[in-house]
Structure formats: structure tokens, C-alpha cells
Amino acid sequence: MSVLWALLFLAAPVGAEVTASFLATEFEGKPIWYISTQDRLHFGYLSVQEDEEGNPGEVWYLDGKELAAAPAGAIDSRPEGSAEPRVVVDLSPDGKRLAYVEAAFDEEGRQAGMSVAVNGKAGRIYESVHTPLFSPDGAHLAYAAKREGIWRVVLDGKEGPSLGSVSPFNLEFSRAGNLAYLADREGTRHLFLDHKAVRPWPGSKVTFSPDWRRLAATLHQDGARVEVDDAPVGRGYRSIIAPTFSPSGARFAFFGRDAETGPFRAVIDGTETGPPLDEVKIEDASRIYFPPGSEKAYWFGKRDGAWRLYIDGEAQPGAWDLIQGKTAIAFGPGGKRHAYAAIRGREVFLVVDGKAERAEPFAFYPASGIFFDNEEEFHFLRVVPEESVGLTCAAGGPASAPRLCPQKARKLFPQAKAQ
């Protein structure tokens, strides 16, 4: 594998100091799928390329190093004729383990089942598997698996109870490592906690507050509505998107829509807040954000042809053609600072605490965004320009005295030199 390590200066906003940017690695083959850790310091991608004998295959790379290889079509399970890749994968928060769904083949090349592989080591073969998910501390891995027509949830390689012929879904870990999911039991949907059915569940989705003390159910009966702690919140809609709690669990928010092509409304604690919006999805994700320790709700919406940031329903300065980033906005650890990247025409802007500064055009590494290291510094992964992965470290203001990127970055890019 060809790996290039070098120091490289990249674009930064005027008034925000660039510490350094490191060219991490040249892409190998043709990348078709990307993933990164939440702290934006570890990255992986699936590449299509030929082996030494000219046979087509799929190769995972993690932090620029080859991790695992598989035959063509084993990991990218897109339907025949589809141009869009379909890859099911999760990366542990520490960036050390990559779990993904991989097809198994018999000697004649026919698919013989599926498994969840971790760093290239395949697990037990099942008829079907989906949703590999790491716990927040990376210590546990769960996924749904079907054997002999019966679904189960597998946790750390051990099968849970038989769940019948209907697949479990909505797998989620708590910060403490507890596992929850929805599954049918004797014909009735139940909420399971650590493999035990704790109560019947009326909705098609469960949303937990961060401390898991409050529960929200999204119900689809003659439309969609939400119940929090078994009490209705707001009115019904045709569809409900992105339900979420604030960090304390005191506030609850979602997007509601009355028609398939109608406007979206942000609903905070049951009250429609802010103007109707034509679009709320950014890079296939719609989200309402609450900063750490804050009860203020942030969201992006497109209205009258332009994207804007809204805080508790009030439009903030700046009208944009596009918002960059899978996680569209980043917050400082104290919740008082925020940053995002936006595009207007051919110009790129980094917006820090509402102040927009022009930057040379750049693109985030797919499926990533900005991450604050502390109240003054932030960093992000980017494509340089479509051949390599780079890391940019910057400070949030001219008065800052930034370091040479966080310690984690210095360990990840050991050959970089301070400037």
C-alpha cells in the first residue's frame, strides 16, 4: 500500500489560526463508503480494487492502513443494477474496531449466509444479520441475526432469547452499556432491556433521554404522533422525524410534517417553533441539536431557497446554498460555542459563534464534520482534494494560542512536525 506522510497547510477562516494540517494517507483503489469516529480522529473507508492476480475485491482501510479484504460483492450488498453502495458498518468510538456485515460464499460462489466481521475476522454465519452496533465505550458489540428462521439479538458473540420470525430493530446502548431494542413477543411488540422484555411498546420507535429515565414512543396509527412517558406530546402529523431529548431530558423535540410534500415544522415540547421549512435533511440526516448542558434547540432548515441556522425558532444571520457535514454543527464542551461549514455560490465559509469567515474551498471527509477539542480549538477531516485524507486543526478566534492539534492527533500522525 502506498502511504504518504507529510505536513500540509490547508484553508482556514480569516481570523482563526491554523495550527497544522497533516496529509494522512492517499486513498487506495476506488473508495465507495466512508466512516469516522465522533471525535473525527479516526477514519475508515471501503475501497473497490483488484488483487495481485487481477481479481476484483473489496478492501477496508482504517486510519490509512489496510484492515481486511473480501471478494467483490461480499460487503457492498447493493441490489443488481443499483448505482448506490449499500454497506452496513459501525466503528468503535476509540477507532480500534470496525464491525461490518459480510456475505459468506460456498465453493461454487453462491451466497451461503451472512456474518458480522470485526477487523476482518468473521463471526458466526447466519441466514441474515443487520445493525452491528458498538456501545459508547466500545466494549460491547450487538447485532440482530436470524438462524433457522428465528431472529435473535447477539451481544458480544452470545445469542439472546428467540424473538420469532419478525426482525428486532431500534437497537441502542445506554452510556452505561445497557442494551435496548424492540421486538415481537407472542404477537405483541415489546421493549427489551438487556434481553428481557420489560413492557409492551405501542410505537414503531423508542427514543431515550441521555440518562435513560424518560422514554418517547413514535406511533403510526392514522398518521404519526409522539408520547413521552406515555403522555401525548403535541398533535399528530403525517410523519415525525428525528425525535430527541435535551441533555438533561427536560425538553423533547422533533420535526413534524402534515403532507408528503408539505413543509416541516420544528416541534419543541409539543409547540411548533419557528417558521415552516421546505427541507431539513443534510447529508441524509435530519436532526435537532442540543448543546452540552444546554436547553436551547438548534436546527438547520431550508426556506425561500436558502439554508439557515435556527436557535429556538429564531433565524440566525447567514443564508446559504448548502450546509456541509454529516454532523452539521459542532459545539464546544461547555455548550456556549458552535461552528459549522456552509457554501454560498462557489465560496466556502466556516461559521464560528455566528461569525462567518471565508475559506478556500474544501470538502469534509464524507460522513464527518467539525469537532471541538476544547473551548478554543477545533479540528476536522477533509478530502485533499479527492486523493488523500487530511486533518485540519484551527482555533476559534485570533486571541487563541492553539497547540499542535490535540494529543490524540499527535499520536495518530506521529511523523508530523510542528510549525
Give a written overview of the molecule.
The chain has one helix spanning 407-412; strands at 6-8, 18-26, 30-36, 43-50, 56-62, 65-71, 89-91, 98-105, 111-118, 121-122, 128-134, 141-147, 150-155, 158-159, 169-173, 179-185, 188-193, 196-200, 205-208, 215-219, 224-228, 231-237, 239-245, 252-257, 264-268, 271-277, 298-303, 306-311, 314-315, 322-324, 330-331, 338-344, 347-352, 355-359, 363-364, 370-372, 377-384, 388-395. It is mainly β.
Keywords:
1 helix; 419 residues; five-stranded antiparallel sheet; 1% helix; disordered C terminus; mainly beta; disordered N terminus; single chain; six-stranded antiparallel sheet
Describe the protein's topology.
Elements: E1 6-8, E2 18-26, E3 30-36, E4 43-50, E5 56-62, E6 65-71, E7 89-91, E8 98-105, E9 111-118, E10 121-122, E11 128-134, E12 141-147, E13 150-155, E14 158-159, E15 169-173, E16 179-185, E17 188-193, E18 196-200, E19 205-208, E20 215-219, E21 224-228, E22 231-237, E23 239-245, E24 252-257, E25 264-268, E26 271-277, E27 298-303, E28 306-311, E29 314-315, E30 322-324, E31 330-331, E32 338-344, E33 347-352, E34 355-359, E35 363-364, E36 370-372, E37 377-384, E38 388-395, H1 407-412
Antiparallel strand pairs: 1-2, 2-38, 3-4, 4-5, 5-6, 7-8, 8-9, 9-10, 11-12, 12-13, 13-14, 15-16, 16-17, 17-18, 19-20, 20-21, 21-22, 23-24, 24-25, 25-26, 27-28, 28-29, 30-32, 31-32, 32-33, 33-34, 35-37, 36-37, 37-38
